Amino acid sequence: LVLITTTDVCKTYGSGVIQSFSKTLFYLKSTCPVTLTRFTLLGVNCDVTVQRGSTGLMTRVEILVNKVTTVLQDGKVTVEGNSISLPFEHTYQHVYQYGVYIKLRSKVLPFSVTWRNHSEGVSSLWVRCQATLQTAKPHLLFLYNLHYSLQQKINKQKRSPAKILVAKNVKTCHSHYMFKNINVDAKCAFFEEVARWCGNQSRLWPVWRQKTSCKPPTCPGDLKYQELGPPFAPTCTSPQPPSDILISTCLPPPGTVLNDRAEGYHCVTVKDCPCVYGGKTYPPGAQRNSKCQSCVCVQGKWTCSANVCPPTCNIEGQFVTTFDGKQYSVPGKCTYVALTISLGHSQYCFSCVCVFSDYTTVFWQSSMFVQVQTSFGMKMKVQVFPEIQLYLYLPPTEKTTGLCGTYNNDTEDDFTTSSGIVENAVLPFSQSWTMGGCSPPDSSICINTEKEIFAEEKCSLLRNTSSMFARCHDYACVHRTCQCTSGLKDCLCVALSNYVKACASQGINIGDWRAETGCNIVCNGNLRFSYNMQACNQTCRSLTGRDPTCEVQVDPVEGCGCMPGTHLNTPQECSPSTLCMCHYQGGSTRPGPVTIDGYAAVFFFLEMNMLLFCLVDCPGGKLCVHCAQAKVNTAQKTCESLSKPFSVDENCTSGCYCPAGLFEDHNGTCVTQENCTCEFSGSVYASGQSVETNCKKCICRGGQWYCEGEPCPGVCEVFGNGQYNTFDSMWYRFDGNCQYTLVEVSCKNLNGEQFAVRVESVPCCDEALTCSRAISVDLQDVVTLILRDMNVTQTLKAGWQLQAQPLYSIHTVGLHIIISVPDLGLTVIWDKNTRVKIKLQARWKGKVRGLCGNFDGKVMNDLLTSSSSVVFSTLEFGNSWKTAVPPCSDVTQEVFPCERHSYCEAWAQRRCMILQSDTFRDCHLKVDPTHYYQACILESCSCEFEGRFLGFCTAVAAYAEACTAQNVCIKWRTPDLCRMCL
Question: What is the distance between the alpha carbons of residues 737 and 883, in angstroms, rounded to a whole number?
Fold first, then answer.
C-alpha cells in the first residue's frame, strides 16, 4: 500500500490572529496561556501552548513532545531548561535555522513547529501535522485525532473563496489594529502572512513592505535578505541545496556560497572554499602531504595523488590483514602458507618464520626486528620480541594466494582456497592453507574476567581523545584488540605497539609511548633502546668492507642497538671503532698487529630422527612407510596436498600411505589424481560434481575447483544502533542523530540514471537507542519514497506524473517491505524496524558513494568522505555524509553501549553466544559469525530495555538471513526467544 501525504497547518501570527487546521481565520485577544494544539499519536503526547504579552508578541511558547519540553522566551530557545545554540539535535527532535525562521522537527511524529523569533518575543508560529491519506479510499481518512481547545469557537464551513478570504483578512486586520501598543514585529507579521495567502506569484511581494513601512529583517554577515527564496543557503559543503520551498530567507550574494567551514557568515566563491581533514581547515590550494600521497584542496574538495606506498600483508599474532585490506583472525594452531612463506603457528603466536628463496639478504635491524630482502622485490620485516609478527611487502606484479590474499585490489576473493574456490568463512579458508596437522581452534569468546577487565581498562588508551595516541586517530584504525594469550602486560604492549606501527606507516610519530604506558624495553649489556634503529654500518663487521644492509631501503624500527659513535662488537657489547674486533675471511681478531694464517672451519649439524613404525596392517590398500629405511615425501600423498606449495625439503613421517601414483582423498580412499575429491565449506564433492557459490558455478576436477560466472550484486546493510557492513564487506559502527546518505550515484550518469537512499534513526523511549529507521529513496529526481512507521509514502516532484510503465514496485514479503527499481538496478529491503539492506547490480561498481562505501572491491578506501578524502575515523567519515538540509551538528564522541551499561556486558555475551552455538553450527562454515557476534553484544548491552528494544533479535536475525543467502535455513526463533507476533 502506497500512501500519499498532505500537510495540515495551524498558524498564529500578529497580535492574535489564528488560522485553524481547517483554514478558518479568527482573532483572539488574550494574555493568558492558550493551548494551540494538543493530541496523542502512537502513544506520544504533544502539546503546544502560547502566551502573548501586552504588545501582541508571544512572550512564551511551550512545546511538549514525548515528555521533552522546549520553551521560547526572551528571544532564547531552551530544551529541558538548557539554553541551546543552532543547530541542535536531541534524540527526539531537531531544532535548526529555516530561512529567517527557526524550526523544530519531531523525530517520533510527523509534526513540526516553525516560528519567527525576535528579541522581545515571537511574531508568528506555524504548527504542521502530516495527514496520511489512503489512495484506496475516495474520502479523506485522517490517521490521527487532533483536539483543539479553540475549535469550539469555530463553526464548520467549507473552504472560503477568495472574496470571503479577503473579507476575513480585513476583519482580522481591524481587530489586529485595534490592539493598543502593538509591537511593530507583530504588525508586520500580519501583513507578511496576507502576502503569503496570495501565493508566491502575487504582486504584493515586491511592494508590501513599502506600503506598510515594514523593514526587511537584518541578515548576519555577508548574507542578503530575500523575500522569497530557499530556506537553506548554499554553502561550501552543499553548493546546491534543495530549492523547491520558498520562504523569507537570508542568502549569499549571487555567484557565492556561505563558507560554513569557518566562523561567522562570510561568503566566498566555490573556488575559494576551504577543505577539512581530521578536524582541521585548509585554505584553497593548500597541500596536505602524508607519507603515501599528497592532496590539494580544490573547490572545497580534496584532489589526491595515487597512493605510492605499497600494500602490506600484516600477520600480528592471530590477526591477519591481507594485501587488499581484509582483516580476520586465524582460528587454529597450525603451520600456514602465506604466499611462498611457511608460518609456524603455536599458541596463537608465530613461533618461526621460514623463508625459501634464492638471492635473499637477511640481517638484524635491531634487537627486535629482522629484515629480509629478496632480488624479486619482496621485503619482509619480522618482529621477534615479545612475540613473532610478520610484515610482507610485495610489488604488485602478479596475483598471489595464501593467507595474505589475492593482491588484486579486490577484497571479495581474498578467501580463495588452495583448491581455487572462494570461501565465505575464515575457518575453511585458513585450513586449506595449512601444512601438516592442526590443533582444534580455541574459542574466540572472552571468558577470562581478569583479562577482560584488564583489556577494557588498558585498551581504552587507544580510544581516549586526550591521550598521546589521539594524534593518529585520523590516520590509522585501531585494528587489533586486546586479546591476550600470554602475560597481560606483554599482550597490552604488543597491541599498543601494533597501533604505533600502523601510525608510523602513515608518517605519524606518536612519541615516547613506551615510557607513557610502562612498556619499556630492557636492553642487554651496554645497548640502548631507540625508536629509530637502522642496520646500516651498525656493526664492527660492517667497518671492514661493503655493508649490504646499506643498500636496502627500509624504514627505521624500534629496539636495542648501539648509540651513534659505537658499533656492535659482540651480541651484548657496543664499542667505539678503535676497539672493534677485526674480521677477515670469516675469522676475527682483536685490534693490533696480528699474523693471519688460513684456517678452514667446518660445521656439522646432526639431525636426529625419531622412527615411527606401522604396528598394524594398513587398511584400504595403503602401504606402510618407514622413513628410516626409505624416505618418501609423505606430505604430497593426499588429494588436498596437490594444490599446496611443495616444501624444498622432503618431509617424511612414518605411517600408512597410498601406493605410488595414488592419493588419499577426503574420504580416506586411495584414488588417482583425476578422481581426487574437493572440499567446500566442510562438505566433500567428487570429481565432476559442481557447487554454486558467490554467483559462480564451480566444478571439481582432479581435486581442484574451476569456477566461472558473473560478478555478484553488491549488498550493503545497516541495523541496530549503527552497525554497518559496506558493499565491499567493511564492518564499522556509526550512530548519529541526523539524516545521512546511505548510497548515492557518485557522478552524473551518462544515461541520466540518478538515485539516492538516505536514512535517519528513529529513537525508542530510551533516548540512547534506535528502534526504527526512516528511509528516503529518491529516484531520478522525480519521485521520493519515504519508508517510516511500517508504511511507504510517495511524493512526486511538482509538475511530474508517473509514467504508464512503473518506475518501481513495492512488495511485502514476510517481515520485509521490498522496493525494486529494475531500470536502475536498485533494490531496498526494510524490515520495518532498524534493518535496511541495499542491493546494487554489478554495473554500479565504482560509481556510488556514501555510508555504504564506493563499491569498488577495495575495502581500504571505503571510508571515503563526501569531500573525496579517505579517512580512518568513522566519526569523520559518518559526519561527512550528513545531508545538507536540514542543518545538523556533528557527532563528536563515539558512544559504546557496553561502557554505558557495563553491568550488561557479561549478560550480552552469554546471550549472543547463540551465534557461536550449535543452533547455527551448520552455517559457521558458510558465513563467519564473528562480526555479527560483536554487533550482537553492542546491541544487547541495553539490557534494562530488554522488553521493548529488540537489538539482540535484530542482530541474530541479520546473521540468520546471511545464512539463508548461503542456502542454510536456521530455525532459531522460539516462543521464548524473539517470537513473532502475527
Answer: 12
